[in-house]
Design goal:
Oligomer: single chain
Distance between the termini: 85 Å
Strand content: 15-25%
Structural class: alpha+beta
């Protein structure tokens, strides 16, 4: 192709238009940079605030439990719990009252016998039986414990209970010392750290709100507690991190920190509109600078149009022939030492290598989940990363799920109906797992899920229960109860550190469920722990 009339003018116009690209990049990059900067600032500030609150909680708990542990070693306390003689009561009561004054607050301290009945209360309220309370049951196992939010049996107030067991000479628990903690004190501490742009939430292990910097729920008993933030627990896997959530129909950035002593989660929530206001200011500056760049690029475009016209035409002619199917054209021949020569060399390299790459990851056509081959490859990659990670308290779960009674569904209702069952079950799996969790179908009615970066086993059990519910509640055309799920679970590193070991352990676990009534889950690790207990 010869250089046509006006080609330089066209190149000039083209390059001017291309000047918009850096302008757009500057605006977008400036906005992204502002967003990342503000998000990072907010994340670090919120995590620091969460850490301060967590440290305050830890200090408070350790201080109380240290005093309780010391008091629990007092011979007078141990003797009274065992004998419960009337002449001992006054001395024990004074001992508790004197200890309680050290804290300079109105929280109750109590002494309970091994039958669950309270023996002494520093607030002189009615003595109650705590036998069914979890903190008493933990004390009778010889363990110190901090309860989740509960309702006081004597006052009806929402409280937290810190307890330590009283141990006799034979190292057996014979009673319990407890100290109640009023939520208002923790609420006041959080309010001091709060600002007008964020909300600070503390939720217990059951998803119930202990503290809310925006409001204190008007709650009368433990069955009416605020659990509006319970949905966040399903997305929290680590000791701390950041989430993008929607609260009250508004996108928010949430940072969370889990307190080691209690298992409670401290969450700071900041709506995105506070971040966006900063972004708009920075974007305005980027627009002004971008306009200056367009003017500069227009002048540069005129100079380059003269130099670029001829070699660009040569490259275009060769590319046009290749695009037209001319098989004789193998490479672009442009003998230049500048960037255009490099461009031609890069194009030739891409052309040579393009057929050497193939995409191995394929989806199951019916369910749009990963197929067996892809799941195996993904598992091996995750295991490689897992084995390179030396953190000892991080686990990886491997689920094999087999749908019970699926053959009967196919035989009675037809294969097309069976396919609908598989599709709906696959949709359910996608809803309960994170985007980075791997979900696949191995064929037939067998599914596999790989979940890594797990800090504890509670998540493994919760997800197994959710899988069961998906199968049980699966409905098609308004009808349900078609299938149930038998779930086998293997845990790395306990069940192995390679794909074959995990698959074998999970497969054996599935057969164990199948042979024991189906509709359940099994993991050899959990069974071994149960035997140890």
């Amino acid at each position: 192709m010869e250089i046509g009339k006006g080609i330089r003018g066209k190149i000039f116009i083209f390059l001017c238009i291309m000047g918009i690209v850096p302008f757009t990049i500057i605006v977008i990059a400036g906005s992204i940079d502002a967003k990342m900067e503000m998000e990072e600032w907010d994340k670090q500030g919120s995590l620091l605030r969460n850490a301060v609150i967590s440290e305050h909680m830890t200090e408070l708990i350790e201080k109380n439990q240290a005093v309780l542990h010391t008091l629990a070693l007092n011979p007078a306390i141990i003797q009274y719990v065992q004998e419960q003689k009337e002449d001992q009561l006054a001395a024990v009561t004074k001992l508790l009252d004197d200890t309680n004054t050290l804290f300079n607050d109105t929280n109750m301290m109590g002494l309970t016998g091994n039958d669950g009945w309270q023996l002494v209360r520093t607030d002189r309220s009615t003595l109650v039986n705590l036998k069914k309370r979890q903190h008493f049951q933990e004390a009778m196992k010889g363990r110190a414990y901090v309860s989740d939010i509960i309702s006081s049996m004597s006052t009806g107030k929402m409280i937290i209970v810190m307890e330590v067991p009283i141990i006799d000479a034979d190292k057996k628990p014979v009673g319990m010392l407890q100290r109640n903690f009023d939520l208002v004190a923790l609420q006041d501490y959080v309010d001091v750290l709060d600002d007008s742009e964020s909300s600070i939430i503390i939720i217990d292990r059951n998803g119930r709100v202990i503290v809310n910097s925006d409001k204190i729920p008007d709650i009368d008993n433990e069955y009416e507690m605020d659990n509006s933030y319970e949905f966040l627990l399903d997305r929290i896997y680590n000791s701390s991190g950041v989430l993008n959530v929607k609260v009250n129909n508004e996108e928010c950035l949430a940072t969370y920190t889990r307190n080691v002593n209690t298992g409670w989660v401290i969450i700071t929530i900041r709506p995105y509109h506070y971040i966006m206001n900063k972004i708009y200011t920075k974007a305005e500056k980027a627009i002004v600078f971008g306009l200056c760049m367009i003017i500069f690029c227009s002048g540069l475009a005129y100079v380059l149009s003269v130099r670029l016209a001829k070699p660009i035409i040569e490259i275009t002619e060769v590319v046009d022939k290749i695009a037209g199917g001319d098989g004789s054209i193998q490479n672009i021949e442009v003998n230049r030492d500048d960037e255009l020569g490099q461009m031609a060399a890069a194009f030739n390299k891409i052309r040579t290598q393009r057929d050497n790459f193939q995409l191995e990851s394929e989806l199951d056509k019916l369910t749009e989940l990963f197929n067996k081959k892809t799941m195996e490859n993904l598992c091996r990659m995750k295991l490689k990363t897992f084995n390179e990670n030396e953190t000892s308290n991080i686990f990886m779960a491997f689920y094999i799920i087999d749908l019970d009674h699926f053959k009967e569904v196919n035989d009675l209702l037809g294969h097309q109906f069976g396919d609908r069952v598989l599709v709906e079950f696959a949709k359910g799996l996608k809803k309960i797992f994170r985007p980075n969790d791997c979900i696949g179908r191995f064929g037939g009615d067998e599914f596999v899920v790989i979940v890594d970066s797990l800090p504890n086993m509670e998540v493994v059990i919760r997800k197994a229960e959710q899988i069961k519910q998906i199968a049980l509640n699966l409905t098609i055309d308004g009808k349900g109860k078609f299938v149930t799920a038998s779930i086998g679970i293997a845990i790395a590193p306990h069940s192995g550190r390679d794909y074959e070991s995990l698959f074998e352990a999970a497969d054996k676990a599935v057969y164990h469920v199948k042979n024991n009534g189906k509709n359940g889950y099994y993991c050899q690790l959990f069974a071994d722990k149960s035997d140890d207990d």
